[in-house]
Structure formats: structure tokens, C-alpha cells
Design a protein that fits this description.
heterodimer, A: 435 residues, mainly alpha, 3-stranded antiparallel sheet, 3 strands, 8% strand, disordered N terminus, B: 438 residues, 58% helix, elongated
């Protein structure tokens, strides 16, 4: 058996353990569902409707204030239109728990990210305070988006834990822990180790890892610069408000010019005020980019899992090769490579025939087990690559679609901003002409 | 025609003054422009004062309100319908000589006035010449508002006197100056203006006479007399000018601040666009759209650059030059105050003397002179004030609509850029599915 695997590898994962047959089935269903569009979202309306503040004692028995979010669900059905939805409250940490569970249970899936825990990369007018109502609101939207992503995922939407998360709040946490998913989680150290030592990872995954690093870098930079641009734009608009005031003061000392100046001043005020809405809308664009920034983590997680699986396969194969060689040496009596056995036999004399026979038998047994292990690992690895790649293609298509839409709506926003600018200045010009 | 001087105030339209040598203009006759210009002293000293549109001025007593009204009405004509003198300043050129390097400007004049021998003139003048003209005008028409010139001195290290922007800004200001003078019903008939516009070479003799002239001018600005009661309308003018200066200062500061903020915005924009280009490199399907967005931002960035430049070149200099104009106006108000103060002092002295010498029944002539001077000055000032107000209104209307236009153009350029990118973004999308959106 592999040196660094332990009994935890074979832990049972509650009622959501997927055998390879079920996995196959799921994949078939995925394809079908994509064609038929029968994901959960089509059957169930999910929304994160509200946010509220609660106080309570935390794990170290201290008072804390936290925010809870109301999850409402209602079957999509013409007949149930008027019926009040089922609802329950959940806090951010429960979403995190759910996501971690999904990550571990479906390592071949690019799992949607959660919105930011803390506000980062914001332009200065936006509060970085977690309790700020705007931040809470944007988080609410982000959480709803997360649920929609999971609910529309062909594999994830069927997960029992997920479904219960949406509908029953009693004992959900206990249920999640009972699945023992935490034990199944690969240690970070193991993953890093594998990443270094793996010999033949699938080229596509290497490329994907590279891509996700690049995407992360470029999106971080984009978001940072965008925030600075927003700051500057804010400054430009707001200073124009000063024109409003001075034109008003000036109009007071003028006779014929007074009216024109006064009304032009009002337009300048309106211009200055318009930037608040503009930048609020742009924040939406930033959130769309942020989602994909966080998605890069999920991509890398899938690549890491592949490297780990591949590494484990390589280790098992190496072990098998080793054992085969040992057998050969034993049978032919030749020592190819240096081994302690060879040394000791030289020093202390050859073994007896019985001894050799016993050893051979042990080796044969080990060989058989080894071959089994290699076959198993091979299948595991192949399955992983296959299922992961299906999901990665799905993700790629989703990403291209979503980001294109985001760019389009960004362009539309810019167009609207330009049109408003033209309008304001044309109005001001009319007032100036009347001076 | 009076043998005295051609320099009497054309604007007064009053016989007594006309035939009187103007106290401040008396020695003007000595200095004449270069020989090849014919004597153009004809019109100004004429008994029957003709104003620009050909109507004779009523030559009744100074206090006649109708004559005042007449003058004001006639002066109101700014539409150029009856304008017969057109001037332009353009074509700046650099001249390099052993002694110095300087810029000259081409001054083109088109006119139907009889005071000019030819209908058209083209001459080259440098700043010094404009300065000479202005000084001459100030001295010969002390009660009138002379439009200001752009700043004379520039810090050699700070500003490049020969840079395109500086020369262009100056040219515009000089053009404005000359146009304002040419539109003035009194100043435009000044002989020095005539020489300036028509003479091949300006003979600017800066003799002693001129110095003493300046002395007189200075006297009227600083004055040694105390003013008793300034008429309300002139006080109001002074107050208005003070408040107006303040507002202009504020507007200048705001405009500068906006330019600064726009420049900083520009800096960030120039970094923003290229990030999309970098991103495009790692993408396949998204490469086209991302590059489209990047080039769009580059277009917006250069549009912003143009806006900032336009505001710096067109808006700020004109605003600043108006502050100079206000200063000139304030000086004229001050001069008026001093003339009135002198009159009051003389009147008081005369009254005192009258008490002593009971025989004196006549008002002494010099007091009368002062009185007329005051009336004349007040009238000139009022008409100049109205003209100034009108000009100000037009100038600011033009300035502010110009600012609005620049901004509109900026937004139109950006709009065009973004609209052209939309089809590029929408391209190759097989279906417009409602995917999960935030």
C-alpha cells in the first residue's frame, strides 16, 4: 500500500457516497439535463430575500453581532404563484460550511465561489465595513447568485445536503458533519507535495492552472485600477458642483445675465450629483469580475486534485515496479541494484530455500495487491480527468458567456453615462445662451 | 475747425468742450506719427461731431439728458450693422536679430472710413507696439476705459515665450484688445490707432512730453483731493466690480481644479485600458471583445486629453484677462472720483473767496472748467460702463457656451467609441440566454 495513504481514504461519506457507477450515471444525467434544462433552478425558485442583524454567543462564549440571510424557496409552478415561500435564516458561516462540503465531496467540480467575507478592493466612497448596509446588500446578492449557480449545476443540484440547506434549518450542521467530509479533505501539505513531485500530469490541467494564475493576476489588477478610476471620476464630477454655487452667487449681482446663470448652476449641481448613481451601477460590474476572480481558486483546486490523484497513481505504479523487480531478483538470485537484502546476504550468507519461498509468496501477494491498487488508482484517475474535464468545459462556456454579458452591460453603462453628460451640458449651454 | 487741437474729446458732443483744448490732451499735437501718413486730424476737431453711424450728435449743454441718451443709444449698436472698421490680429512670426528675438503679428484693417486713406491695410506689429498704442490711448482719452492688454512680463524660466500655446493665447488677447478699441465710438477715431493700423513703421517717440503726460495721468489716479459725495451709481459700479472680481477668482480656481482632477483621471485611464489588452492575451473567445474595450478606452482617454487642453487654452486665459479688464475699469472710476474731488475743492475755494470779495459775482472760469470736466467724465464713464457691461455679457456668453461645447464634444466622442464596441461585443453569441447574473 502507499506509504502516505491512511485508513481515512476509505471513509464512508454518509448517504451521498458516490460509487463509480453512480458517478457515471451522474455524468450521463448531466448531459441529459443540460439538454433538457431540468436543473433544480427550473423546478424551484430560490432567493436570498433579506438580511438581518442578530446577536448571540459565539464559540468562545463572547457576545457578537452577525448578519443572517433569509433563504426563500418556492416550487416553480403556475398554481403556486400566490403561495408564500418556505423560508429559513442562514448566516455566512453556514454558506461557507456548505461550500467546503461541496468542494470536498465533488472535487472534480469547479464550485462557484462565495461573495467576499470582507470588503476588499473598494473605491474610497464605498465602506469597507462589514456592517455597512450597502456591503450587506451586495453580499446578499452574491449569496443568492451562489445558490443559483449550485442549483443550476447538473451534479451539485442533486446533492442532498444542498437541498436540505435550502429547506430545513434544524440539525443541518450536524448532518453535514456526519458525512465526515472534513476527514476526506486532502491536506494542504499533501497537495503541495504532490504538485512538486508529480511526473506526468495531464497537460490540459497544467495549462488550466497556468491560465487560472494569469486570470487571477489580471483580474486583481483590473479591479484595483478600476477602483482608482472610479475615485478620480468621482472627483471630477463633484468639483463641478462648485460651479453651481458660484453661478448662483454671481447671478445675484447680475441683471440680465442672472436667470441664465442661475439655471445653468442648477444643471451643474445635477451633473455633480449624477456620479453617485453611475458609480453604484459600476459596482455591479466589479462584482461580476470579482466572482470570476474568486472562481480561479476553484479552478486551481480541481487542478490540485488532479495532480494529487495522478501522483498517487504514480506512487502506486512505482511501488509495483519496485516489487516486481524485487521478485525478479529473488527468483534469479541476481542483485541488480544495491539493496540492503543483497548486502546482508553477502555478509551473512544466503538464505535457505524455504526462506526464499516464503518471501516469494509474500511478494506475490503484494504484487497482486499492488496490481489491484494500480488498476484502482488508474480508474480513479481516469474518471477524475473525464468528469473534471466535462465540468471545466461547462465552466469555460459559462465564463465566456457571463463575461461577455458583463462587458456588454458595462459598455451600455458607459453609453448611458455619456448620453447623460451630453444632456446636462446641452441644457447648461441653452441657459448660457439665454444670458 | 478749431486751431487748437485735434485731440478734443470726440464723445462729448458739446460745443464748448469741443473748442476747448482738452487739459490732458494739449501737448499731443507735438508728437505725430511718421511722415508718410497724411494728416488725419480732420474729423475729430470738427464742430459737427459725426458718430460712427453718420448721425450728427446733438450739441446742446452737457446736462441735457437727451444728448446723453442719444449718445448711449447710438453707442449701443454692437451688431456690427453699421460697423465700418474691421481689424484682425493673426499670423504670428518669429524674428531673430543680433540683438533680440521677438514675435510680430500681422494686423489687417478693412475700413470705409474717410479718416483712412486706403480701404485696406496690412502691417506687422509686435507687443511693444500694442503697449505703445495703449499708453497713447490712455493719455489722450483719460476719461475712457481702455481695454487691457495681456500681461507684459513673463517669467523667462517659467513660461516659454515662443511656445505655440503662449503665442496663440497672446495673439487672441491682442486681437480682442484691438477689436474692442475699434468698436469704441471714441477710441476708434483716435489718431494713434490710425497710425498703428496704417503706418508702415511706427515712430514711437518716447520723449519728455510723454513722460509729463504720464505724470498727469498718474496725478489723476492718485489725486490729492478728497471726495465728498460720490454719486450712488458710481459707488454701485465699484461695488459690483469688487464682487465680480471675487466671483471670477472663484471660477478660475474651480476651472483649474477641474483640469487637475481630469488629468489625474486621465492617468488612471491610461493604465486601465492596457489591462484589458493583457487579459485578452490569455483568452480565446473573449479576446476580440476585450481588445475592443481596450481600444475604446484609449479613444476616451485621448478625447479627455483634448478637453483638458481646450479648457486650458481657451477658457482660463480669457477668464484671467477679464480680471485685467476689471482693473482698468476700476482705474477709470478712480480717475473720475479724483476729477470730481478736484472740482469740489476748487468750488469750495472759490466760494470762500467770493465771501471775501463780495464784488465777485461771476463763477470763475477754471471752476467752470472743472465742472464741465466732471460732467464730461461722468458721461463718458456711463457710456463706457454700459458698453463694458454689454461686452461682458457677450464675452461670457461665448466663454461659457464654449465650455459647454467642449464638454459636449468630449462626451460625443466617448459615446461614439462605446457604441462602436457594442456590435463587436455582441458578435458570435449564438443565443441570448438568460444566464445566472448577479
Amino acid at each position: 500500500m502507499m506509504a502516505d495513504s491512511g485508513p481515512k481514504e476509505v471513509a464512508v461519506i454518509g448517504n451521498t457516497e458516490l460509487t463509480s457507477a453512480e458517478l457515471d450515471n451522474n455524468i450521463k444525467n448531466t448531459m441529459v439535463e443540460i439538454e433538457k434544462g431540468t436543473s433544480l433552478l427550473r423546478k424551484l425558485e430560490i432567493s436570498v430575500a433579506e438580511a438581518e442583524k442578530r446577536t448571540g454567543k459565539n464559540t468562545v462564549n463572547m457576545q457578537e453581532i452577525y448578519t443572517v440571510y433569509l433563504i426563500e424557496t418556492r416550487p416553480v409552478d403556475a398554481l403556486t404563484e400566490g403561495i408564500t415561500p418556505d423560508s429559513l435564516w442562514r448566516r455566512y458561516s453556514e454558506f461557507e460550511l456548505l461550500r467546503n462540503y461541496l468542494l470536498v465531496t465533488y472535487p472534480f467540480v469547479v464550485v462557484a465561489p462565495l461573495p467576499e467575507k470582507r470588503a476588499e478592493i473598494v473605491w474610497h466612497k464605498l465602506s469597507a465595513d462589514n456592517m455597512d448596509p450597502d456591503f450587506v446588500e451586495r453580499r446578499r446578492v452574491g449569496l443568492e447568485n451562489f445558490l443559483h449557480r449550485v442549483a443550476s449545476h447538473p451534479v451539485l443540484c442533486n446533492d442532498n445536503i444542498f437541498n436540505i440547506f435550502l429547506t430545513e434549518d434544524k440539525d443541518w450542521k450536524e448532518m453535514v458533519y456526519e458525512t465526515g467530509f472534513q476527514a476526506k479533505a486532502d491536506s494542504r501539505l499533501k497537495a503541495v507535495n504532490a504538485a512538486f513531485r508529480v511526473k506526468n500530469p495531464d497537460g490540459r490541467f497544467t495549462e488550466l492552472k497556468h491560465y487560472s494564475d494569469e486570470l487571477q493576476t489580471v483580474l486583481s489588477q483590473l479591479l484595483r485600477v478600476r477602483a482608482r478610476v472610479a475615485d478620480r471620476l468621482y472627483g471630477v464630477y463633484k468639483v463641478h458642483g462648485n460651479y453651481g454655487r458660484v453661478f448662483s452667487e454671481w447671478s445675484a449681482i447680475e441683471k440680465e445675465m442672472g436667470d441664465g446663470l442661475q439655471s445653468a448652476g442648477h444643471h451643474m449641481d445635477a451633473y455633480a450629483a449624477s456620479v453617485d448613481d453611475i458609480l453604484e451601477e459600476e459596482e455591479h460590474y466589479a462584482d461580476q469580475l470579482k466572482e470570476y476572480l474568486f472562481y480561479t481558486d476553484a479552478l486551481r483546486a480541481v487542478c490540485r486534485k488532479h495532480e494529487l490523484t495522478q501522483f498517487e497513481l504514480e506512487m502506486v505504479a512505482l511501488d509495483l515496479a519496485c516489487k516486481k523487480q524485487q521478485k525478479e531478483e529473488l527468483v534469479t538470485g541476481t542483485v541488480r541494484t544495491f539493496s540492503l537484502k543483497g548486502m546482508t546476504s553477502k555478509l551473512f550468507g544466503q538464505e535457505t530455500a524455504e526462506q526464499r519461498e516464503a518471501k516469494l509468496q509474500v511478494l506475490e501477494q503484494q504484487l497482486k495487491e499492488g496490481e489491484e491498487a494500480v488498476k484502482e488508482k488508474n480508474t480513479e484517475s481516469d474518471e477524475f480527468v473525464k468528469t473534471a474535464w466535462v465540468d471545466i468545459e461547462r465552466f469555460k462556456d459559462q465564463k465566456d458567456r457571463d463575461l461577455k454579458e458583463a462587458l456588454i452591460s458595462y459598455a451600455v453603462m458607459q453609453i448611458s453615462m455619456c448620453k447623460k453628460g451630453i444632456q446636462v451640458w446641452t441644457n447648461a449651454k441653452e441657459c448660457f445662451n439665454k444670458m | 475747425m478749431s486751431a487748437c487741437t485735434p485731440k478734443s474729446l470726440a464723445s462729448s458732443g458739446q460745443k464748448p468742450i469741443q473748442e476747448m483744448c482738452h487739459p490732458l490732451g494739449a501737448e499731443e499735437a507735438v508728437l505725430t506719427p511718421s511722415p508718410d501718413v497724411r494728416n488725419i486730424t480732420s474729423s475729430i476737431g470738427e464742430k459737427d461731431q459725426i458718430l460712427p453711424n453718420g448721425t450728427p450728435v446733438e450739441t446742446s449743454s452737457p446736462s441735457s439728458s437727451s444728448s446723453l441718451l442719444n449718445r448711449l443709444q447710438l453707442d449701443d449698436d454692437l451688431d456690427g450693422e453699421t460697423r465700418d472698421l474691421f481689424v484682425t490680429v493673426d499670423d504670428p512670426k518669429k524674428h531673430v536679430s543680433t540683438m533680440e528675438t521677438y514675435i510680430t503679428y500681422r494686423v489687417v484693417t478693412k475700413t470705409t472710413r474717410v479718416e483712412f486713406d486706403l480701404p485696406e491695410y496690412t502691417v506687422r506689429r509686435r507687443y511693444q507696439d500694442f503697449d505703445w498704442l495703449r499708453t497713447k490711448l490712455e493719455d489722450s482719452q483719460p476719461t475712457h476705459l481702455i481695454p487691457p492688454l495681456p500681461e507684459k512680463f513673463v517669467m523667462k524660466g517659467v513660461v516659454d515665450r515662443f511656445s505655440e500655446e503662449f503665442v496663440e493665447t497672446r495673439r487672441k488677447a491682442l486681437d480682442k484688445f484691438l477689436k474692442r478699441v475699434a468698436d469704441h465710438p471714441v477710441l476708434s477715431f483716435n489718431e494713434h490707432l490710425n497710425s498703428f493700423l496704417s503706418a508702415k513703421d511706427l515712430n514711437k517717440r518716447q520723449g519728455l512730453a510723454l513722460l509729463s503726460k504720464m505724470g498727469e495721468s498718474v496725478k489723476y489716479v492718485t489725486g490729492g483731493y478728497k471726495l465728498r459725495g460720490r454719486p450712488v451709481e458710481f459707488s454701485a459700479m465699484g461695488d459690483y466690480l469688487d464682487m465680480f472680481t471675487q466671483k471670477l477668482g472663484t471660477i478660475d480656481r474651480i476651472a483649474q481644479r477641474i483640469i487637475k482632477e481630469q488629468s489625474e483621471y486621465q492617468v488612471e485611464l491610461r493604465e486601465y485600458g492596457p489591462v484589458y489588452t493583457t487579459w485578452a492575451l490569455s483568452e480565446a473567445e473573449l479576446q476580440g471583445p476585450l481588445e475592443g474595450v481596450a481600444s475604446c478606452m484609449a479613444n476616451c482617454s485621448s478625447a479627455l486629453d483634448e478637453l483638458t487642453q481646450d479648457m486650458s487654452e481657451d477658457f482660463l486665459p480669457v477668464l484671467r484677462e477679464y480680471v485685467l479688464y476689471i482693473e482698468s475699469m476700476k482705474i477709470v472710476l478712480k480717475k473720475r472720483d479724483n476729477i470730481q474731488a478736484e472740482y469740489e475743492a476748487k468750488l469750495e475755494a472759490a466760494a470762500f473767496r467770493k465771501e471775501e470779495k463780495a464784488s465777485c459775482t461771476q463763477v470763475p472760469t477754471d471752476v467752470e472748467k472743472c465742472h464741465d470736466r466732471v460732467e464730461c467724465c461722468n458721461a463718458d464713464l456711463k457710456s463706457d460702463w454700459d458698453r463694458w457691461q454689454n461686452n461682458k455679457r457677450q464675452d461670457f456668453r461665448q466663454l461659457l457656451t464654449g465650455m459647454a461645447d467642449h464638454n459636449i464634444q468630449y462626451y460625443e466622442k466617448c459615446l461614439a467609441a462605446w457604441e462602436s464596441v457594442i456590435p463587436l461585443l455582441r458578435d458570435k453569441q449564438p443565443q441570448e440566454t438568460e444566464t445566472e447574473e448577479d
